[in-house]
Amino acid sequence: MTLQTYEHNNIHDMDAFAHLRTYKCPIQTIDGHRILDQYALVNEDGVPYPARPVTAGYKLVPHLDMYRSQAKRLAASDLPTDNVTVIDTVIDGGLRATREIRFNELRLDMPLRDGSSDGMVARMDTVNSIDQSWAFQAFAGAYRAYCRNMQVFGGQKVYHARRKHTRNLSPEAITQNSIIGLSTFHANRDLFDRYRTITLRRDEWRDIMEETLCRKTGRGASATTDEQSRINVSLLGQMMGRFDEESQELGETLWTGYNALTAWSTHVTEKREFETTDPGGNPRIGTNRVRTSADRVPHVQLQRQQKVRDVLESPAWQSRLEMAAA
To answer: Which of 37, 197, 295, 317 is buried most deeply by CB count within 10 Å?
Structure first.
């Protein structure tokens, strides 16, 4: 394994990744026949990387595109990006890459495993590969180090996502969630410290969603006596899926539910799979893509953020805090 490491202080500096443009190229036999559903990974000069072929379903995430998008989102956030330490690492000629960003003006007092606490600078780590060797991962929190089996050392993470390179992978969504998680945790750390210690089971999350965000409020829903007809089944499926994704790394807590809500409020155009049932009552997987024009995205996000606030102020959510305090 060969490593090339670049340390600097500018989130927009992409020198480490500028030469790592990557594309999927159809594979042909010597006599020019196309090999179906097999693609080579090549650089901008058409030279193949030393990686096994991928299929059409493989979601290629070029390092340069991903880290450039992350920098733009960070610049638009309220995280302090003027005083940062950035460590870019390119591994094996670009097959894998990592970016570590330390926010030197942002310190979080996070508990250690022995019960003590230590003030460490907040950081974000993003891990990517183009050769199927690593899942796409994003860490955020205050910790000394991490390993790619989802563990952190000398502190704690406030957000972590690990996703395979499939069609449904959304690096933009994961990046934004890590930014939101770090920013909101810093601004409301006492409250969110409580969120992380309060258990929220999957069935309890479903109950909260059915009582709040996913409850229909129109005339038809008010008139019917069928309780199931008062629930937005499509949205409920989405929110259950988001909770399942977040709970893989964060466990089943209020903090997990909060992350699921903020992810929904921010990402208004991404394609989602959700659990639902067919007319016969049999379970199936559906897909949903909210078609929101670019000029309406901020408006829709504001609407959703208000709905999230309504959930957090609802008796269903507040009762979980009260039960934990009792």
So the answer is: 317
Q: Tell me which residue has tokens 């638009």.
A: 76
pLDDT tens, residue by residue, 249-302? 778 999 889 888 987 887 766 554 444 455 555 555 454 444 555 556 667 877
d(CA 282, CA 275): 11
Residue pointed to by tokens 């390119």: 90
Q: Do residue 206 and residue 61 come from a single domain?
A: no
For helices 315-325 and 189-197, give the axis angle rounded to 10 degrees: 80
Q: Where are the beta strands (DSSP E) in the chain?
A: 3-8, 23-28, 34-42, 84-91, 96-111, 117-129, 136-142, 145-146, 152-153, 156-163, 271-277, 283-289
Please report, as a single letter, which amino acid is at residue 189: R
Say what the pLDDT of residue 269 is.
61
Choose the final residue of a domain: 170, 187, 204: 187
Question: Based on the domain organization, do 34 and 166 belong to the same domain?
Answer: yes
Residues 146 and 18 both lie in one domain:
yes
Q: Are 165 and 56 in contact (CB under 8 A)?
A: no
- Domain shared by 241 and 104, yes or no: no
